[in-house]
Amino acid sequence: MKKLDKLILKSFIGPFVITFLVAVFILLLVYMMKYFDDFIGKNIGFATLGELMGYFSINQMPMALPLAVLISSLMTYGKLGEHFELTAIKGSGISLIRIILPAFVFCVMLAIGAFVLNDRVVPTANLRAFSLLYDIKQTKPALDLREGQFYSGIPKYSIKIDKKYPDGISIKNIVIYDHTEGNGNKRVIIADSCRMYSFMGDRYLKMDLFNGNHYIEEEKKKSGRKKKDEVPQFVRTKFANMDLVFSLASFDLNDTDESLFADNRYMKGITELTESIDSMGHSMVDSKVKVYGSVASSYKYHLAGYLEPPSDLLNRKEYLDSLKETRKQIKSDTTRKMNDDGSAQLGREDKVVENIKADSGRSYASRAKEEHVVSFLENKNRSTETREQQKRKKEKKEKYDSLFISEDSLILVVKQQMDSLYMRPEQRDQVLSRAVGNARNIKSTLNSSVLRMKGLSVSYDSHVVEKYKKYAQAFSCIVMFLIGAPLGAIIKKGGLGVPIIISIFFYIIFFVLTSMGDKWAKSGVVDGLYAAWMANAVLFPIGVFFLKQARKDAKIFDADFYNVWIDKVKMWWVARMAKKQTT
């Protein structure tokens, strides 16, 4: 059996390595085509381009592994079946499950490695790749002066030439606008010829100008005149030869701080994604609760300045706030202690969380409402209170703390205050104008809150689907093997012809379902968990079906297999018609 296992693994690993490298190369080319325009004319060098392609190659490995497993398994078991080796092995009493077991174990280990790669290596590679890509995008194209066109690639200068000779050095009729002072086109240099060349490793550009003029427009203020009466002064300097030196530092490839890109979901592992999901979920709950407060504060007459959010939303907010504080406290405690008491700290966290859930006191909603009533009575009409009233209220603070005021009484107090606005008819227009302004502010506040919550929701769903994709892409290696190995044993065709065609067909299904899941998850149509596993959920039953048919040596791809079923249907139909005629 060990020789058989070695034979299967040797037959599988060779095609797998080749197809994996080819798949990575093809996916890399397709991916790099999106950024092809960003490389043209940048003169970034082969080293930088090779580094970028290396990072993007790691990015494409999780998608290339399933395709490589599918093609190699089809080729391996198709070749064994084509050369009747599979038939000979089965004839010796070894089942198909035992035959595919060595390669299956290899694929399971490969899936574990793919998960580690997707969780640890790919985020780091993405961070460096996209930061390097950003630097390339920000890099200016190489110096390219074109005849009859203004060139603004050199900072604070605009250059136009009439003719550029084939040697790349000599230029005829050049105009240079100097914007270093930042006051418009008030400094102009015109020359009838120029020689241009770089030096010090292309760090600087030197222009030798011949037979030209230097025009300067300056502001001159005469004594006793105001600034608006300033008279411009024009200065013209004629020269036979002038040397200009420009720094080409802006054409260099700069290194951007990678931490600026670290917040993107593609640069995070599962731990970081989980923390981001928890944080965004907390922010979404806070935003929903604040909407009720912002709306109710503008309707004091009808809502008494308080609109109670749903109890489940408030309880969720209380739970998340308490859990956040608990985790923060535990994190600070664990930094001062050794790792050996980590389990005790986790037990403490679970205990605190259970105490939060089992709180037998008043609900969060009732406490919030009472706190709002007290704060409203303490702060109402503070600007018009006299010292005597403030003193009286201070003396009665304990009374207010223990006083229970119903919602109807609070609304009555607010109505009495607002009714005073209608005592004078001349204030009606002012009140109506204020009401229109408040309505517009409320609408603007609600729109901004809705947009913010939509943005948080999209970001939340994107992080969720990205988290579960790391598991799903690793498991897809096993799914593709369950499709490829039995299918190769059924079709009994090795080589690159039929396996490549079948592999492309199934991989297109896998790729389309994965892309659809991403879009549906980001739009909120499907939960991120289901979206990430949708492709595996569709293809896994197909693999099980092929495995079942391969164990029975079914000829599902032979015409005779379907002819038998067609003949059975014809016989059944003939028998039925004959029965009808006899009756």
Automatic annotation (TrEMBL):
- Tell me the InterPro entries matching this sequence: LptG/LptF_permease
- Report the main location listed first in the record: membrane
A biological process (GO) annotation for this entry?
lipopolysaccharide transport
Q: How does it sit in the membrane?
A: Multi-pass membrane protein
Provide ranges: composition bias, Basic and acidic residues: 376-389
The record's subcellular location field reads: Cell membrane
Q: Out of the domains of life, which is the source?
A: Bacteria
One GO CC term, this protein = ATP-binding cassette (ABC) transporter complex
Q: What is this protein called?
A: Lipopolysaccharide export system permease protein
